[in-house]
Predict the 3D structure of the following.
Amino acid sequence: MKRNTLILILFSAIFILFTGCSEQEGNKPLSYDPPGSTDTRDKKISLQDRRTFAFESAGVFFSNDFAGGRLNAIEQKGEQHYSILIQPENAPINNSAWYAFKVWAAKPQRVQVELRYEDGRHRYIPKLSRDGETWQPLTPEKFSVDTTRYTALLQLDISRDTLWVAAQELITTAQFNRWIDGLAGKPYVSTREIGRSHMGRPIRLMEISEAPDARKHVLIISRQHPPEVTGSLAMMAFVEKIAGESALAARFRKQFAVKVIPLMNPDGVDEGHWRHNARGVDLNRDWYNFNQPETRAARDEFLKLKDNPENRVYFGIDFHSTQEDIFYTLAKDLKTVPEGLTDRWLNKIRAHFPDYALNEDPGGLGSPVSKNWFYREFQAASVTYESGDESDRQALRELAAYAAEAMMETLLESISADNSQ
Ligand SMILES: [Zn+2]
């Protein structure tokens, strides 16, 4: 073996060892923790210039001026050829290269749009929408990725009607509020503000219960990482089941109380960030130091449960997205109270979806992520529930909906076993 090859292998091994992981454990390509991500003190970020970029002579217009938008600069390269620069909020940063823009034209035409990235690489298949609400992936023949330059080239058919192009469906503060307020119409769902983000956006909590003095609790959070839209889709399907009309859900709500923080990082989501909050920090590395207002608001709310020693948290679940569906669970030697809840829950899911190869990755408590905090504080069974970036949306909703039923069944069985002892 040549000396250069050997050095390359050695460096690759060191790189893999030190760059860690997608959410916490495991080594996923393109999705690692950059140096300094667990230093959660304030960092400087660059906000985008929000505006319409007009190419008057071509009659073509681009805009990043909407919640979730990300387009840092654009130049015209040819008659119907544009090159867009996408930058992160700050760097170094995990490669979750988010982009979102609107485009329209005076006359119908096909344009080529190149996406170039600073401090990252193309990751997400483009999603298109005509109304900002319903989305379809761009068909494969209309886009290609240059795997040496890490750019993407999109063929877009544009006209006077606005075309929305984004890394994932846009689910920003407005969509979350609509969803929360819709569920809050039910008598057993309430909502309140538990704090504010750096930029002053509300952090909203939902509480779901029909038990007047519930002492049994489940804690749910989502969207610490702005581009992780499929995690939010899964969280919504999961919570809708718990707040649903089934007999199981009604029985569950008479025994348990559920606290949900659907949107942990509203600044990151609405500013079109790749990963961080408005102080350039990965919130899911701040569950030890709690330097950031968003994580502090969640911690302070959840810790109120400790005011009454009878309160017990059974599950803590944090919804995310990564390259594939995966459940990051606790190492099997970590004793939860009660024991074995996660195994019983996941086994129900395996039995219900026999053709679904459920991917579980148990891990230790080394990383300052929410999952480990739920365990440290409450000895709760805790899970980082990850949906794949490009997982089929209907399938991931069905999986999450059943996962909620399986969790409710598992918990009701576990308390009836307790009572019969
Ligand atoms: Zn994440």
Notes: The CA atoms of residues 56 and 311 lie 63 Å apart. The chain has nine helices and 19 strands. Residues 23, 225, 228, 284, 320 surround zinc ion (CB under 6 Å). The chain has a mean pLDDT of 93.
